């Protein structure tokens, strides 16, 4: 039984104050004491919603990468390993950057949660060269970037 995705969902309702233990789990709740009814949430805990475009049904995955890998992501181990290898995987594209005018497809993804204990809220598309590069830099987190068919 996988309780972590449910705890992840409930953690969004908990107060944001809390302490991070050595296991990478943040305890939130009354006085930061998980045993006193608080909810724990991993420091590297994401929800990914991907739309392949062209009228396809969006898909959603959960991913937890902290001492273990958990979630519904189809390539969870590879995605965690890849993200851990990046300095700042969810850095936004700077406003003053010049991007090539090329279209990479109708795909879009919304990534939300925590990474390194920091809040993540990122929308990724493939509408120009910068955003195609950003999508590609996330590697296996955003599988099947071309086409509208889900992976077999």
Report what the structure shows:
This protein is of the alpha+beta class. It has a domain at 43-141: Subtilisin Inhibitor. 17% of the residues lie in helices and 28% in strands. The chain has 3 helices and 8 strands, in the order αββββββαββα. It has helices spanning 4-11, 76-84, 129-137; strands at 18-20, 25-28, 39-42, 45-51, 59-65, 69-70, 108-115, 118-125. A hairpin with a 4-residue loop joins strand 1 and strand 2.
Q: Low-confidence parts, pLDDT < 50 over ≥5 residues?
A: 1-39, 147-152
Give the biggest sheet: 5 strands, antiparallel
Helix content: 10-25%
Which geometry do the CA atoms define? globular
Give the H and E element order: HEEEEEEHEEH
Overall radius of gyration: 17 Å
CATH topology of the domain at 43-141: Subtilisin Inhibitor
CATH class placement of the domain at 43-141: Alpha Beta
| End-to-end C-alpha gap | 25 Å
CATH architecture of the domain at 43-141: 2-Layer Sandwich
Secondary structure class reads alpha+beta
Overall pLDDT metric: 78
Q: Would you count the extended β strands for me?
A: 8
Number of helices: 3
Beta-strand content estimate:
25-35%
Please name the fourth-level CATH homologous superfamily of the domain at 43-141: Subtilisin inhibitor-like
Main sheet strand line-up:
6-5-4-7-8
